Amino acid sequence: MPSDAGDSSSLPSLALRGVWKHYRRGEEDIQAAADVSLELRAGSFTCILGPSGGGKSTLLHLMGGMDRPDEGEILVFGRDITHLKSDQLSAYRRSDVGFVFQSFHLLPTMTAAENVELPLAIAGVSLAKRREQARALLARVGLLDRAGHRPHQLSGGQAQRVAVARALAADPQIVLADEPTGNLDSQSGLEIMQLLKSIAHEDGRTVVVVTHNEEFIPFADRVVRIRDGRIHSDDVRTTVSAAASAGREAGAASSVRFGTLARMALSAIRRRLGRATLTGLGIAVGVAATVLLMGLGSGLESGVVAGLTSFGPLTSITVSPQRVSGTTSPFAPNTAAGPTTPITPRSLSKFAALPGARGAYASVMFLATLRAGGVNTMTSILNLPPVQLSSVSGLRPTLEAGAWPAGNGILVSSADAKALLGGKKPNPDKLIGRTISIQPEGMSGGVFGGGTGLVMPPRRLPFVKLRVTGIVTANGANYIPYTLAISWVRQVSGSTSVTYPGATVIGRTITDVGPLAARIGKMGYGTTTVKQILKSITSSFSAIEAGLGVIGGIALVVAGLMISVIMSMSVLERRREIGILRAVGARRKDIARLFLTEVGSIGVGGGLVGLGLGAAAGEVINAVISRHASFHGGIFHLPAWLLILGLVFGAAVSLIAGWIPAARAARLDPVTALHSE
Description:
By secondary structure, the chain is α/β, with parallel strands linked by helices. It has 17 helices and 23 strands. The protein has 3 domains: 8-254, P-loop containing nucleotide triphosphate hydrolases (Rossmann fold); 268-306 and 537-674, no CATH class; 312-533, no CATH class.
């Protein structure tokens, strides 16, 4: 083995020393290379002749780093490539070797120029520079006018010229041609051989041609005959000068640029658009199901929370005459326990005087009948806070139209207004200014009062007439002024000694609510805070949304399995393409990244479609619900985090599902893959 010291130009460009290679085919042991020793110089044109199955192609694959010998050494300008790692061999093929194949092996989705650019793209060369080089090489082989043609638009001779130009793209020191004229007519074959000879003699490259055609011997400087894996003769016909460039180290194992991978992935998607569309639809359905189900859960939570907070701010505490045990969830009834402590005007004064309290007032919910124009509807009526507390944010409902009531005025919910007006599309605002009749049927301690339950009047009360001053929509309830509500309490209870079924205490800040509720509880009363209920609702809906997310996730898993199967089929169909990419220097991880980029693009596209489908279905549900029910904001809500989550899920499921097929593609043997049809 020569030393690396001294002038590397004196070393053979390619040297095989005692190379052996065996294959197993079933029970048969095939000897493809048997103790082959050979030295080739730069600037030489060598023909390796022999019968089919004699080991010619195996020898070429060993020289090109596509395969490894079982024994022996392969030296490139004195550098042993036998034990290089996979990525180092890829770098060697990328920078030092150019392949020309019998079947051309041009990628059908690429133009002639793009096929020539391929090794440069793998090497990470910029788009502008590789386009310039590709045009120069096509001009050299006489095909500049065919730069935009695809392989099926070229003749056999033209396609092979493109393949030769591609072999020269990375400026390799060694050009290896495997039966380059096997699929050409005689004239085209002679032209290709002449082109390869000029590459050796004019460029100073080492050119090795494997052929079984004796007619090409006159082109060669050296003819090596091989049979059964052994060299039978070695005829040096012309001595060439060693004026070739000295050996160089293979480039570092660089990565293919993402833009190149993206273009190749999109090209593959376009070529199999129908299959890619079906795959993307699988992801789209999974994402749509996830977004729709979780959006419904989120919308229901938002609607319930919005309706809940419309009954009072987070600083409010609802007080009942009895302590309340059990859950604070609005989805289950509260349970009253212990003695009753009446809520009186004196009690309200005590509540208002407690540390951290801003004020207190009676809270009552009346069950009443509303009548207008001969139409009756049963509904609930709440009292507004007293005037001195009306400035507390969130304590009063949202006024949609009209003005706040005074004296014998009432705010009617839009749902009740529509019921009283009747017709197909009633306008609630038309009820403003009209007088309606109201008959109180009973009362309880507000929405969260609990304890006393429903109090029925000792005698049936007459209808009273109130003027509609405005329309509210927040929670479906109607509202009357505080003073009017207090007078109704006396009428319903039928007693001069006023006790209230419930009360509302307002804390100065949110941090005052907890201690204030505890103090009221020590006085013998039951307390419920909006903050407690919100916490319970959030916990409940988190579980609901998680469950709905799991259901949607099942659809994504099914879509992922479909992607895995389809990508596995794609790998089988594209083995030859994988072999070509490996031959021009692509690493295993580059192949894996290509397939992952492809499946990731499909996943992102499917995710976007799924987001659109899920959102559209949710809006349809909201539209249908709004026609038949009153639900604040609809029951479907699509927050920004859910949009991001849906997109991430689509891409992640695609990448996870495509990982095994991509890894399988990366592990394919380049020689086997290259000759797959």
